[in-house]
Amino acid sequence: MKLLSERKSPLNRVFVYQLEDGYRVESVFYRGDTLCVSTQVGCAVGCPFCLSGKDGLLRNLSSREIYLQYALLKDALPIRRIAIAGIGEPLMNIRNVVEAFWMFKKEGLKVSFYTSGHPVRHLPYVLTLPHSGLTVSLHAVRDEVRRRLLPHAGSLSELLKALRDSLSSVSKKKRKKVSLGYLLLKGVNDSEEDLTELARLAKSLDVSVTLLYYNNTVSAFEETGQEEYERAFLLLRSMGVRVTLSTRFRKDPLGGCGTLVVNRTL
Ligand code: SF4
């Protein structure tokens, strides 16, 4: 595996790697200290707001291939954190992802996960790992909307049941690091009714909510405006939910949410 190229924007740096069998995957360095790494060549979940899964899943990355995305850059960049949030669904490649997780931990790195939560049977185990954050991409509180946004991520009710069951045995301190990711899409999931239900779920699970910006360079959804985004934030806060706001890195056309692709043409 080798590093092929780098592209820079004022916010992000995107790296393309060539794998032994010729496939190309990507990582992003952002926030001045974090490397977002890929876990699969493609993704089977197929979210319509993300380019990573547009050709489905081609294969899993090995633990070494996940680790090497960091190792090939570590002498050149001040990487302190790893976000397992690039191309692929980490729970669908659980064995290699967990092996890579421990390789990163050995290097003294903080590691966070971003997952659709599918397959749900792996959630309890990932929750017990010494991670520095686990964001479960909920994006919808109604099953039909979630199926549209995460077409192959299983059922919402199964996910919520798995979260309820596994979080009950997780310490309060650990639960503080768990968050429901919610990508606000205008007219799709941002009604007051939906946000009220989101608040109710977050409170009943005793986890926070991460409100995510939609990256409008990726697909044709309508973006929730800044005013509505702030309204959503205040509504959740007024209901006693801990809320984190998305960073501007995620909206960047280069390296932002949903922009990483397999086999980029160089
Ligand atoms: S957002 Fe994540 S789960 Fe959805 S297609 Fe992209 S990589 Fe896969």
TrEMBL record:
InterPro entries: Aldolase_TIM, Methyltransferase_A, rSAM, rSAM_sf. Its cofactor is [4Fe-4S] cluster. Residues 29-248 form the Radical SAM core domain. GO terms for biological process: rRNA base methylation; tRNA methylation. The keyword Nuclease does not apply. Transmembrane segments: none annotated. GO terms for molecular function: 4 iron, 4 sulfur cluster binding; metal ion binding; methyltransferase activity. Gene3D superfamilies: Aldolase class I. Keywords: 4Fe-4S, Iron, Iron-sulfur, Metal-binding, Methyltransferase, S-adenosyl-L-methionine, Transferase. It holds the Pfam family Radical_SAM. PANTHER family: 23S RRNA METHYLTRANSFERASE (PTHR30544), RADICAL SAM CORE DOMAIN-CONTAINING PROTEIN (PTHR30544:SF5). This is 23S rRNA (Adenine2503-C2)-methyltransferase.
